[in-house]
Fold:
Amino acid sequence: MAPPTHLRPFRTPSPTPLRGKEADTPRKTQFFNALARKGNSKAIRTIAKEYCIAESTARKWRQQYLDIGEEAKRYTRARSKVLGHNSRVTKSICKMLVSPSKNPVRKQPLEAQIEYYKIPVKKRQLQRKLKEHTKKGRRYLCAFIKKVISPKNHEDRMVYRNEHLYDEVFGFWDHVVFTDEAYIDPNTQSQGRVLLEQGTRDRPENIEERPPLKGVRFHIATWISWWGKAEKLRFYNDEEDKIEQPPIPLKPRRCPTTETEEEYKHRLLE
Structure:
């Protein structure tokens, strides 16, 4: 580099704008020194323009200097959002709780899981840490296996569809009344919850088989047509549900070839 001369004097480059970055210590120190010297004679806007910083940044630095003094000249470190000691719920504990193979009590409430694993925290802190250390882990509704339509019903519906696909609305469909019936078992329809991560509800290890019906149920029926529909659902009890069906009789054993007809009938009577 050529030495500076009178024709080409060395000039210190002007400070560049911050562009969203935090200023270094020398720039902050220069601003605070200029503010101390010229604060009474110049406006903050003018001083900020001389050092290529925004007016809002200059006012913010001035307030920081009034609050914390000389510490405002240094880099500011991010403070913790939650005050106090570190949480006792670690990332490994959260991963273990949402694991199907490691947590046998995933379907229990969080209070029961805290008691089972002796975690020294309350329910709210565990909820916050599960959301922080896992993919929005919390207690989701269990996924039941969907009932697949039988091949016979599917075939009947396709035949009905093909037969009446091009029938007119007025003249055919307006005379059709569609009815539907369903039954609910209050003892087995409750859908439980399980602790897992977001997006893993439909995995095989998280799917439950729907429990069998216990026989205590009530029926619901309704209808709809082109001209109207049922104003209210109809609830009723089916009398056949209370009738105990006798067991299917055993199939008689086959008559052996060495046994006569009289001996076979005598054995059945016994």
The CA atoms of residues 48 and 70 lie 19 Å apart. The longest strand covers residues 177-184. Residues 25-38 form the longest helix (14 residues).
